[in-house]
Structure formats: structure tokens, C-alpha cells
Amino acid sequence: MIIQKQYKFYAAHRNEELTDKCRNLHGHRYGLICHFEVERTGALTTLFGDFDAQIEPHLKEHYDHGMLINKSDPLYETLKEHERRTGERFRFKEFDAPTTVENLAFTLFSEIIEMGFRLSHIEVRETDSSVITYTREDWIADNRDRSRLSGEKPSAVRE
């Protein structure tokens, strides 16, 4: 059985490797739709609140009104230096790769799996007209070949 739950959060990011408008720091109201696989054990399988009790606080603490940032982005060190110099603190969600919606989906999928939930897939909405579907098969492939996250060639293919 599939149970579907929807969430949203606001976050800033940039795609530092691009040369278009997305290289600029900007924000999105991200939408997340989780498709949970559950086993029917009786008349009541799962309370929707069981999902919300873990996922909503996680999104609020780590994502909402924060900045998704690649630790290799030169802007990251600039912002960290600003924090050291001024004592001001930013909410960073640090990535080891570009903050693309694909990498966001990988990260969210991984975190939700770590909470003990079984996902068939998630949908991540970056804008009203731009949504990706990220499946368990995508997650397995990304874990098998981490070069997919950075866009590098797999080590066996490098020249």
C-alpha cells in the first residue's frame, strides 16, 4: 500500500557551476511529496501523523528558511568567514555536490530512509512548473556511483 504525504519548505541556493541566472543566489518554495510503502496490518495501517512527527521537524530544523550550499562553492567559505568575523549565524544545509534539485532529492530520500520509512519515490517541486520524481532505483544507482551527484565521470571511465 502507498501512503502519500506532502510537505513544503523555503530555501535559498545557487548553482555555482552554471553561467545563467541560476548562478545567482535565489530561493524557492520547495514542495515535497513522499510516497511511503506500508504493509497493511489491519483496519488502520499507519497514522498520517506518524510521518509528520519526524519529517516536519526535520525539514523545519535543517531546510526551512535556510541555504542549500555546496561546500566546494567559493561563496560557502565567504559566508563562513562572515560568520566567524561577525558572530552572525546562517542556517546552512551543506552538500558535498552542487545543490541541484536532483541532489536535493537524493539527500531528502536518504534522510527519510534513515528515519526508518520505506519510500517508493518522492517528488520534489522546485517551481510551480518544475517537478522531478526520484525513485528508489535512482537512489540505489546514486549510492552505487556517487560521481552522478557531482557530474564527474565515474572513476572507471576517467581518462
UniProtKB/TrEMBL annotation:
- The source's domain of life comes to Bacteria
Keyword field contains Zinc: yes
Protein name according to UniProt: 6-carboxy-5,6,7,8-tetrahydropterin synthase
Q: Spell out the family assignment given in the record's similarity comment.
A: Belongs to the PTPS family. QueD subfamily.
| Pfam (any one) | PTPS
Could you tell me the keywords of this UniProt record? Lyase, Metal-binding, Zinc
The record ties this protein, via PANTHER family, to: 6-PYRUVOYL TETRAHYDROBIOPTERIN SYNTHASE, PYRUVOYL TETRAHYDROBIOPTERIN SYNTHASE
**Pathway(s):** Purine metabolism; 7-cyano-7-deazaguanine biosynthesis
